[in-house]
# Entry
Amino acid sequence: MNKTFTTRRQAMASAALGACALSLGLMGSPAALAQNAKVLTIGMPFSPLSMDPSLSGNGRAGVHLSPAYEPLIRTQADGKFAPGLATAWQISADSKEATFTLRQNAKFSDGEPVTAEAVKKSIEYFVGKKGPFSANLASMTAIEVLDKYKLKVKLSTAQPGLLSLFDAYFNSGDIISPKALENPAQLGTASFGAGPYKLDTAATITGKSYTYVPNEHYYDKTRIKWDKVVVQVFEDQNAGIQAMKAGQLKVLVSDPFTGNANAGNLPADLRIVSDPVQWTGLILTDREGVFQPELKDVRVRQAINYALDRKLISQALFGKMAEPTAQLQSKGFMGYDPEIEKRYPYNPEKAKALLAEAGYPNGFELKLQYVNNTLSRFVTMAIAGQLKKVGIRAVTEEFQNFGAMNNAARSKKMGTLMFNSNSGVPTLARFQTLDPKGSLNFHGSEDAALTKLINEASLLPLDKAEAAWKKVYAHVADIAWFAPVVASHTVYFVSNTVKTPRIGQSVVIDVIDMVPAK
# Structure
């Protein structure tokens, strides 16, 4: 197996220079840009869904928002909050209200002032668009403007992680100019935030390359360290690595597979910045059997979990940048429980027996889908090979981008998706993965026992909720809605000309924190 993957890596690397030349040509003289110390060039692995924060992906898939949209608060690597557009914040004792005090000198890139009324309109727009993360604020009942620079967000149910919803990760904190909201269609191709930069639409090729210039209205110009920021899409990470080595990128947002494959042969002027904050594996999404009838039976979903040799995949593909896991929360995140790791030891005979009990003694064909990127392609191949050993014949389907993935989800043509997502504050992370309206719960699955456990855990203050969330994630493992494979690192390749913080609880590195090393 190691030989197979080495061969595939070599084959992809041999094609990298040609792909690199093609993609770099789209940037317009990237080598010249990179030679200018005042230009920050970033490679990202996904083509953005939209420039509109309410419709965009987040995390690594939201890198393009980071230069232009300032959140209310920022989450630091140690989990503590730092000021953004808000200078002070408070959550009520019952976790149903969050109050924010705004700085009084902030303006959007169109010159409009950032006021409590503007923030109110932005959050209401975000919820109303019903985008990928709107479920996080589904219980919002009102936003009360207390004075020109102070507002209160009210929920009908307790949300101990409420403040975190307004950092850079969940997008609802990326505040949009009220003037732009008068014509929201323009949000898809331009930026209207209060961040340190703004999108230069004339120098941008949608889906390929995004160029940002300083926002002349930004409240703290000492934090604008670059004359220009260029974010380039590198769906082929090998092409991105070649661009890094050639000095055409200063930062490459990457993945643990690419990180492991290149860790031993980086030039002296490049380094890897990484932290274990993600899980990578399968979302067994069609739990009602609409598109993939076999997945309706919990024994089939459990069989898939037993069929996976997580240790082998982890070692072969990720090395030190991942470790095998059967759960959604990584070590260090609330709800992680080492006991869950014992739930699905590698046992192909057990998998075959469960399949036979479920009525599939000869196995079945499984539609195994993934979004086009280096990590997903290789993990999908590895998983397909292991499933074959127990009689599950994977028929793979590649989505070119997240838009294609979401189209399949909306038409209920989603069975099993190879994906990676982040661990996090469980009261928030569950909205993406476990809530019936969550962005990764494509068929709106519900489980009565799970709902009860989540409701009980969500009522508890975070400092008293550890045991309750362990019960939630143990039940998630039992009903096998997922088949996690590894707890993986978020990985960045970074030039030594750029200084960055560690990742930690912030999950991603904000562009404003990528500064010249000298």
